[in-house]
Amino acid sequence: MNKKQKKMLLRIIIASVAMLVLMWIPFGEVLWARMLRLGCYLAVYLIIGYDILRKAGKGIYHKQVFDENFLMAIATIGAMIIAIYENGDYTEAIAVMLFYQIGEFFQSYAIGKSRRNIAALMDIRPDTANLLTDNGIEVVEPDDVVTGSIIVVRPGEKIPIDGIVVEGQSTLNTSALTGESLPREVKEGEEVISGCVNLNGVLHIRTTREFEESTVSKILELVENASSRKSRSENFISKFARVYTPIVCYSALALALIPPLVLFMTGNGHGFSTWSDWIYRALIFLVISCPCALVVSLPLSFFAGIGGASKAGVLVKGSNYLESLSNSRYVLLDKTGTLTEGVFEVTGIYHNRDIEKETLLEYAAYAESHSTHPISKSLQRAYGKELDLSKVSDIEEISGNGVLATVEGKRVAIGNEKLMQHIGLSDEIQTQTDALGTIVHMAIDGRYEGYLVISDRMKATAKSAIADLKKVGIRQTIMLTGDSEKVALKVAGELGIDRVYAQLLPADKVEKVEQVLAQKHHDKEMVLFVGDGINDAPVLSRADVGIAMGALGSDAAIEAADIVLMDDNPQKIAKAIRIAQKCMRIVYENIVFAIGVKVICLILGALGIANMWIAIFADVGVMVIAVLNAIRALFVKKD
Question: Global pTM?
Fold first, then answer.
């Protein structure tokens, strides 16, 4: 608990004990005893309620009258005045304020718990960096480290800035980012990202970014800004409260004035007792009608849901995306890097008689030497020799088709069938029907020379991930890929995917998303796209909800996606949907419960059946129950 919460708890305890003591003291009925009794109860009332009275006064001064502080102030002051006149029970007025403050304490504690949960994620932000200089290691602020510097990360320390390991090997704990406890082995030459904890060996890392551009900074910025994007439910409740509160206040005023006036004019009134009875009913009406349970619990539910998701390695950019995710009915998935490992291997080389296999592979590796695409990397690995980049010139990348490059004076074309069509060699293509994988065609100096087959492995959890999506209510799963139709159909058949679209360019994927959006049964059904975030930014932006998975270190994913899964396990997609569905279930439970109880109690209060204790339950009791229910969104089931 923070200092403010401790102070509030102390006030609650003092007021509770004082009220219990006063209830047992026999003050007597003489004037001085009655005045002493009033003074004692008034002191207790001010101890527990002075801040509410002050806030109500500020609201009136700033012409923002109608809020819960005003309702509590009017209701309790009115109850005190009636008790003074009738020499009645002051405990009801104090109890209203006391239990309201208990409810506020629960709210504050719940929000604090949610913030602490998100703060655990914030703990990935490193405080210092060990900069290697000519004079040894210097401890500096991460902001002061420039790109290309060498930093030293010892066992137990967090990696402060993204970079590449230039010396050492170790095991990294990525759980703060991914939500998974499985460690990751790293060695010289491998890329590492900020926020991971170094478990054993000493690492020397050459930084590849500024601190403010590092993964950890982007993630923290994403989480910190999540609360600014409100869901439709939150926006509705905010508007509802602004309209509802003045209506309630005027209704209570009408309840206090109109019935006793009518009774007085018809001769059925009994003086002040009639007025006090109806004023008391109006005060009860005010207490019951306070919209705290809704105004507090709904934002808290979403806040807790975002906090719980972040703990599981699911970063949600706003509660509006959480609400949309819960209504997802169509899931479109990119294949490479999402359902497959994205680790390509050259599994076949088919060449003309006039060129050697090794020569074809050499030209392929050089032509693709300036590309960072996984297929390009696989060609370079298969070649296995150091590349002399001075041999390559006039590189022209044709998006979605392939590459044209000059290698040692020869014009090399490498890519798919569309590239061969582009250079007028589509009739020369000959492939074996049993070749299964991505086929990369090659032409040298305008002559078709053969093709290479590159295969990708499916992820071990891909099949169960598709089955999990069906369990959480997904109506249709659709795979989008730039790969050949034969490969795409084989992968989809093994995984149980409903529909497949193959040989797609990035623009074609956007078109397919548009088609699915047009086929929705109604607006509440959401279309979800899941990609690895490298080439999928346009599609991630176009879908109702875009999820980038395995996005550690991917700027494109973090920028374009609405939700970011911090590891590459496709089962996290269904987990993210379950988290969102649980959060929305809690939201609707709180709405139905709060409104239902209040409507019943308002009717009872207006009829004179409910007393102030029922009003306390209808306000504070409902708020406490709703807040406790909202906290459940923090807890994500491990599976």
Answer: 0.67
